[in-house]
Design a protein that fits this description.
single chain, alpha/beta, Rossmann fold, five-stranded parallel β-sheet, 8 strands, binds 2'-deoxycytidine-5'-monophosphate
Length: 227
């Protein structure tokens, strides 16, 4: 039996996080949402009015940003903390959506986050989702999944998520924001979103969450038990 790292990458709104969370839970693995780390940085920068293009300010801010994870047994989920405060809806607000891709494109910020992510994965038994997990953070991950889904389907899902938090946003606005983020994530110079050569593509447009999770857990179990 082998302990492995599972890397799940893909476009915004493909259901990576929900899938990764359930895969981790089914395997008894830890789950790390790397996008939430960039979102914490974005929120910190917004709250402290830091210019993310100013190298010195960015470096100083990164020293002040403590990001940690804890498992909530009651909710059966992993929570992210920014300077010891649990972050939830705060990092999913439209104003964070608006700048997070630009934040995540800054090489200094990426280097700091990748370093933290690699340290978190040292003990393996981990599922991490993001954009560059299988290509940059864990290029040797035993299982890499690349998730895609139709833009319209992704926009509807995002709208539903926001509505559940009491936030009403027009579907065209969401589509525009997702398409813009896809473009920024896929075309940035530093670690763009690309499928790792050895990743398995999973199109989630017409799959239920349960189906997606089962597909990944089945493959993972094979690797864990049979190598
Ligand atoms: O997965 P998400 O939407 O919460 O990610 C937020 C932003 O962070 C998104 O614009 C892509 C970026 N990101 C990244 O560049 N690299 C990662 N490993 C994870 C997220």
């Amino acid at each position: 039996m082998a302990d492995i790292v599972i890397a799940i990458d893909g476009f915004s709104g493909t259901g990576k996080s929900s899938t990764a969370k359930k895969v981790a839970s089914a395997l008894g693995y830890k789950y790390i949402d790397s996008g939430a780390m960039y979102r914490c940085v974005a929120l910190y920068f917004i709250n402290h009015q830091i210019d993310f293009e100013e190298g010195k300010e960015v470096a100083e801010a990164l020293d002040e940003i403590l990001i940690s994870f804890q498992f909530n047994n009651l909710l059966n989920t992993s929570e992210i903390l920014l300077n010891n405060q649990i972050m939830d809806y705060q990092i999913r607000l439209p104003e964070v959506d608006e700048i997070v891709s630009q934040i995540a494109a800054q090489p200094l910020i990426r280097r700091a986050m990748v370093d933290r992510q690699q340290k978190l994965g040292l003990k393996k038994k981990m599922v991490m989702d993001g954009r560059d997990i299988g290509t940059v953070v864990f290029p040797d991950a035993a299982l890499k999944i690349f998730m895609t889904a139709d833009l319209q389907v992704r926009s509807k899902r995002r709208q539903k998520e926001l509505e559940e938090q009491g936030i009403q946003v027009n579907i065209e606005e969401i589509k525009k924001n997702l398409a813009k983020r896809d473009d920024l994530d896929a075309n940035r110079l530093d670690s763009p979103l690309i499928k790792a050569k050895d990743a398995i593509t999973l199109d989630s447009s017409y799959l239920t969450l349960g189906d997606q999770v089962k597909k990944i857990v089945d493959i993972a179990n094979k690797i864990i038990h049979e190598g």
